[in-house]
Every structure is written in structure tokens, then in C-alpha cells.
């Protein structure tokens, strides 16, 4: 490690060039032992992405995650859908579920951005409540030079072949086996479905229920957002269902619009972390933050986590933090 000895005027200039005001760093000696690296500037961007809360959600985990994240003081927090259980047109129940979730979100000291999931927008009643309570269910915004595009993969809400009905019909064990198989090796999955006809039947119905709905109006929103922001520092696209995993002409149009610019795709829905490099860009499917893991507990891709994203120079840096990796100043709790 190379240490430096800088005259104060030179050091002040370096701090200013890095986006740090000259008075922010005040060394007590000319020969402070530090490297020549500049300080993080005011244009550094740091945000947190939260995974699925629902889908047989486990009480307290989402709330714990928000409390831990709040201590890190990111610029903002954003989720990738499925905050409430939904799957109902009972307005009293929907209101109660949003009250519970927003009670936890309101404890944050930083902004929280909502991304709709299939549980949040199962039907038109839920969509009307979303719009009245939260605002737009697809939108974009720019922050510190980066462009964020929020897609709604339930636009319009999907037919009522919801997983809840399949879960009731086939049971938790069968659903777990099929979901795990669909997230694993395709050849092994097909072999399993061939051996066990009931699981193969469930797999067919699950695949049929995984269609992505993106309206023409939403595509136009994306087109305009990209036209109005031709050269952002980076483009982040967030949605609930990973639309790149199904046949979606609408999503393919959006991908075509993104060609030529660096971007990162983030989604959730399958309750298991997955990464792939597609079109020379990062496409990431988050795991859960309170939802039921989509694989066995020992699978490292099925742990509760949050994603920390930082953007300074170049491509964003992504770190995933398991919730059991956090502990308070008193030290880790005894097992």
C-alpha cells in the first residue's frame, strides 16, 4: 500500500475533484497516513433492494430487514414486488394487509419505492387500491444521474389461476418439489415430471400461470423515459416477474429499446436467487426477504437477504447481505 504526503492545497483540490467539499476533510497533520484514493463524492449512489415478502410470508423477517437497512442509511430502498398476500377482492382485508406493511415501511428514515407484484395486483380491485393508496403502478425516475424504470408485470392483472388455488389443490409438498425442479436443472426437472404425472401436471399449470402482462401504454412510458434520458450514468430496470424467463413480445420490445446502453435488470417472484449474463448485461432474480424460500433451507440461493447497490464510477457494484449476517453492537445473539 502506497502512503502519501500531500500539501494541504493539493489535498483540498483532490477532495474537491472527488465531489467532496474542500472543508469536509481536515487533516491534523501534513503527513496523515492514508492512501491517495479520493473520497466518495456527493454523486455516489447507494440503494437497497428488498426481496419478496409474501408467498407464505414469515412474520417479523421483513420488519427486521427494514430496521437493519435503516441503520445503513442508503439513499433509498426499493422492493421487487409481493408485499401483501392479496389474492382477494375483499377491500377490508386488502386495506388491513397494506396497513401492516406500510406500518413497517413508515419506520424507515429514507424513501421507499414500491414495485408491484402478482400478490399486490391479483385483480382490478387491488389495482384500484394500489393507485389510490400508493400512486402509479409503473413509472420511472432519475436520481443522481441514474435512470430507474419500474415495470408492472401484472398490467393488466393476470387471470385467476393464481398460485394460491394451485397450492390448495396440490398441497405444499408438491408445490415445493415442482418449484424447486423448475428452478434447477431442466433435464432433471423433465425426468421428475415424467416419473410423477401429478407433479408434471402441476408444472404445466404453473408454467401457464407465469405469463407476463405489459401494456402498450407501459411500453410507451419506457420509450419516452429512454428518449428523455439518452445518456444516464446507468439504467436500472426493476419488475416482479423475471420477464426474460418467459415468452413476452412486450418485454422483448423493451429489451430492444435498451440496446446500446448499459443497464441492470432486477426481478424476484421465484423466491430463489439467480444470476445470468444476457445481452452482455446483468439479469438478477432476487431471493426472499420474509417470503417462503423457493428451495431447501440449506440452499445458499434460498436465504433471506437484501441487495446493496452502489454506483460511483463505471458499472454498479452489487453485494448481497444475508439477514443472519447482521448483528447489533452488543454482538451476535447466542444460537
From TrEMBL:
Keywords: Signal
Highest rank taxon of the organism: Bacteria
Signal peptide: 1-21
Domain (Calcineurin-like phosphoesterase): residue spans on this chain: 45-273
Protein's UniProt name: Metallophosphoesterase
UniProt source species: Sphingobium agri
Amino acid at each position: 500500500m502506497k502512503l502519501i504526503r500531500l500539501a494541504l492545497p493539493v489535498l483540498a483540490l483532490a477532495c474537491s475533484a472527488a465531489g467532496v467539499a474542500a472543508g469536509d476533510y481536515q487533516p491534523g497533520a501534513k503527513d496523515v497516513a492514508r492512501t491517495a484514493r479520493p473520497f466518495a463524492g456527493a454523486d455516489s449512489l447507494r440503494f437497497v433492494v428488498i426481496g419478496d415478502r409474501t408467498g407464505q410470508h414469515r412474520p417479523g423477517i421483513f420488519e427486521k430487514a427494514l430496521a437493519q437497512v435503516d441503520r445503513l442509511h442508503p439513499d433509498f430502498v426499493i422492493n421487487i414486488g409481493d408485499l401483501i398476500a392479496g389474492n382477494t377482492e375483499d377491500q377490508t382485508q386488502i386495506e388491513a394487509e397494506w396497513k401492516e406493511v406500510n406500518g413497517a415501511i413508515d419506520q424507515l428514515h429514507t424513501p421507499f419505492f414500491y414495485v408491484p407484484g402478482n400478490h399486490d395486483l391479483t385483480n382490478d380491485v387491488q389495482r384500484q387500491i394500489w393507485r389510490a393508496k400508493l400512486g402509479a403502478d409503473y413509472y420511472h425516475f432519475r436520481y443522481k444521474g441514474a435512470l430507474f424504470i419500474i415495470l408492472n408485470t401484472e398490467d393488466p392483472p393476470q387471470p385467476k389461476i393464481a398460485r394460491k388455488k394451485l397450492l390448495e389443490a396440490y398441497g405444499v409438498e408438491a408445490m415445493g418439489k415442482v418449484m424447486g425442479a423448475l428452478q434447477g436443472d431442466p433435464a432433471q426437472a423433465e425426468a421428475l415430471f415424467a416419473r410423477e404425472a401429478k407433479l408434471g401436471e402441476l408444472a404445466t399449470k404453473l408454467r401457464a400461470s407465469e405469463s407476463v402482462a405489459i401494456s402498450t401504454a407501459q411500453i410507451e412510458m419506457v420509450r419516452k423515459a429512454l428518449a428523455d434520458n439518452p445518456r444516464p450514468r446507468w439504467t436500472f430496470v426493476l419488475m416482479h416477474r423475471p420477464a426474460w424467463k418467459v415468452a413476452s413480445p412486450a418485454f422483448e420490445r423493451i429489451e430492444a429499446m435498451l440496446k446500446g446502453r448499459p443497464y441492470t435488470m432486477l426481478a424476484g417472484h421465484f423466491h430463489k436467487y439467480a444470476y445470468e449474463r444476457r445481452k452482455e448485461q446483468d439479469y438478477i432474480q432476487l431471493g426472499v426477504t420474509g417470503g417462503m424460500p423457493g428451495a431447501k433451507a440449506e440452499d445458499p440461493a434460498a436465504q433471506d437477504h437484501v441487495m446493496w447497490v452502489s454506483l460511483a464510477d463505471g458499472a454498479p457494484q452489487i453485494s448481497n447481505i444475508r439477514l443472519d449476517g447482521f448483528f447489533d453492537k452488543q454482538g451476535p445473539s447466542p444460537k
